[in-house]
Amino acid sequence: MSKVAVVQASSTLFDSKAATDKAIGLVIEAANEGAELIVFPEAFIGGYPKGTSYGAVIGSRTERGRQEYLHYYEGAVTLDGEEVARLAEAAQEFKVALVVGVIERLGNTLYCTALLIHPEDGVVGHHRKLMPTGSERLVWGFGDGSTLDTMDTSVGRVGSVICWENYMPLMRQAMYAKGTQIYCAPTADDRDTWAASMVHIALEGRVFVLSACQYLTTDDVPDEHHVDAEPRENGVLMRGGSMIVAPSGEVLAGPVFNEECILYADIDLEDKVKSHLDFDPVGHYSRPDVFSLSVDTEPKDSVVFD
């Protein structure tokens, strides 16, 4: 039996140092409760700019929007940067594995990335979101198949699928085939329908699902940054909805809305094994004679120098 934790909290938008400070404080809190794996929401470090248009309409951009993008870019992190190193140090010190949503800066492009941080080996994986949703495509680049990473931990094999990637059936199938046992779903989707998707994925993949979403309000947005969409009542931009689900579909914790919290659950990988008696989506229930999936895991560089 192992204890896992899901963090539901607000990011410190566009301030990676402050967001890392907050993340480490939450790591300490969850580790002190005995958690061996801690999952943070999508874009927790760097920020999810909910409701921001960046001054973009078809055929035109504004100078204010470009200035806002500059602010966002400056608040992103690099894989070899100080913030990521501090997270790895915290994982080692408190003997926990981490899945942390960050905005990653690579060259002149930003990516929505989930870091896989091992307590002994540091950053062992980084999954860049393959398919940003809607207007996210304005500010985030597309990941490729080279970052469909997993991480072996004391809790089990951990994989991460970000937000609406969870609606991509072939993406899910690929992650099941990689042997994912703890399926982490950092997200910005706080709708009632999200919970049903997480229960479905737990049953479909026979996996433990750990879904983490932020609780974010307009009070968390810097004064110089504009929110162009109307928030919910009381200025709520993201209301959470984080949860933990067993391979049986049983909800072990959550969903919780409209507050910051850490959710905990005790999980046993034997429950996953038992659930495969009647279903294995990449084994005895897969029918490879009829259906097959080919996954390209080669990195895709725009320029290759021979």
TrEMBL record:
Residue ranges constituting the CN hydrolase domain according to the UniProt record: 2-269
Its family remark reads: Belongs to the carbon-nitrogen hydrolase superfamily. Nitrilase family.
Q: Which InterPro entries match?
A: C-N_Hydrolase, C-N_Hydrolase_sf, Nitrilase/CN_hydratase_CS, Nitrilases_CHs
Alphabetized PROSITE patterns for the sequence: CN_HYDROLASE (PS50263), NITRIL_CHT_1 (PS00920)
Q: Which UniProt keywords apply?
A: Hydrolase
Which molecular function terms from Gene Ontology are attached? nitrilase activity
Q: Which residues form the signal peptide?
A: none
Keyword Hydrolase listed: yes
Give the SUPFAM superfamilies listed for this entry: Carbon-nitrogen hydrolase (SSF56317)
A Pfam family this protein belongs to? Answer: CN_hydrolase
What is annotated as the active site?
42
Keyword Hydrolase belongs to the record: yes
Name it: Carbon-nitrogen hydrolase family protein
